[in-house]
């Protein structure tokens, strides 16, 4: 076992993004290469790709059941009213959309807060509700995140009640090695996990969605139409052309850079 930071005195919760690295952690648990957490929690942003849930239902939930580990998939709307904007007076826009400057045509990107509001906060509220806030605070929670060494810049040292830990970094695993671990266990290649309207997607992700998931691509097109109707300068894709007029091709770029800059919770794309 190479998970030296494992602390059984605290509550151990694997935060599943539903994607490659989270699935690899669960496979490693089933192989005895990682210890059993107390619980696995995935927050459904209610804009997740449906193939991620199909995969969880068909392959991961039965595995967890066989290991006797509870796996809770919770909907964000059960724990927060924040959606595209915060529900406070400031109505802050949460996803990191692109903005076209009317005068110069320059394209910039907004900071992203959706992962924190849609995932981290509901996750923490669920744990507090389940264990009782006082008990959870007293014992402390180890939040296992599926970051790999190729994304090491996403690692944040936290401590305190919600201490983030990174078993896959300790095991020196890359995302590609995680795919191999899952496939070697006899499971199909895991899908990439992210929202169907996520501005952190790169063109290879859009190309895949346009070709292989047309219903969700159509939802993203409709989503962006409504977005532009309300905020004419906002876009979902970095080219700033509306999604509906584009034919995407795989440009070979990864998503790492945007995730480091615009999504620091470690709960997305894992
Ligand atoms: S996948 Fe993208 S849109 Fe969804 S919560 Fe994460 S950063 Fe936000």
Automatic annotation (TrEMBL):
<protein>
    <recommendedName>
        <fullName>3'-phosphoadenosine 5'-phosphosulfate sulfotransferase (PAPS reductase)/FAD synthetase</fullName>
    </recommendedName>
</protein>
<dbReference type="InterPro" id="IPR014729">
    <property type="entry name" value="Rossmann-like_a/b/a_fold"/>
</dbReference>
């Amino acid at each position: 076992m190479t998970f030296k930071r494992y602390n059984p005195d605290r509550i151990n919760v694997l935060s599943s993004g539903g994607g490659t690295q989270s699935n690899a952690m669960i496979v490693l648990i089933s192989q005895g290469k990682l210890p059993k957490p107390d619980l696995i929690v995935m927050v459904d942003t209610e804009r997740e790709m449906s193939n991620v849930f199909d995969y969880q239902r068909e392959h991961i939930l039965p595995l967890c059941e066989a290991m006797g580990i509870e796996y809770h998939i919770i909907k964000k709307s059960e724990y927060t009213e924040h959606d595209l904007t915060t529900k406070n007076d400031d109505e802050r826009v949460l996803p990191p959309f692109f903005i076209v400057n009317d005068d110069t045509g320059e394209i910039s990107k907004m900071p992203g807060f959706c992962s924190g509001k849609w995932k981290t906060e509901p996750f923490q509220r669920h744990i507090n509700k389940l264990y009782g806030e006082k008990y959870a605070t007293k014992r402390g929670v180890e939040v296992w995140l599926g970051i790999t060494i190729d994304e090491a810049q996403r690692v944040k040292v936290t401590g305190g009640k919600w201490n983030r830990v990174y078993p896959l970094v300790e095991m020196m695993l890359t995302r590609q090695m995680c795919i191999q671990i899952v496939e070697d266990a006899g499971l199909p290649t895991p899908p990439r996990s992210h929202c169907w309207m996520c501005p952190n997607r790169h063109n290879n992700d859009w190309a895949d969605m346009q070709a292989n998931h047309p219903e969700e691509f159509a939802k993203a097109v409709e989503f962006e139409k409504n977005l532009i109707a309300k905020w004419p300068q906002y876009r979902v894709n970095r080219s700033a052309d509306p999604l509906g007029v584009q034919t995407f091709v795989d440009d070979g770029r990864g998503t790492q850079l945007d995730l480091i800059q615009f999504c620091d919770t470690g709960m997305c794309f894992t």
